[in-house]
Amino acid sequence: MNLTLSELEQAINYWRRMRPSQGEERALSAEVNALADVYALMIFHRAATFPLGDLSPSARELIEAWRRAREGNVA
Do the Cβ atoms of 3 and 63 come closer than 8 Å? Predict the structure, then answer.
């Protein structure tokens, strides 16, 4: 199964709401940072999708948590 760029953007925005940047430097949260790495790779390689199996375990867990939250909001 693949993750689309649009889905990744939605997941990043979800985690930005859940874990906003803080401090004077407005640093990204660990959750957003983990997904931003994937986003950067997709943009650099001009990839429309990214294989879920190639995500780090932490990034995969964040995507799965976002999907569960999204499914809970649809119902």
Answer: yes
Neighbours of 49 (CB within 10 A): 14
Digit-by-digit pLDDT tens for the chain (75 residues) are: 899 999 999 999 999 999 988 777 778 899 999 999 999 999 999 999 999 999 999 999 999 999 999 988 754
- Domain locations in the chain as residue ranges: 2-74
* Nearest-angstrom CA–CA distance, 1 and 32: 22
The count of residues in the chain is 75
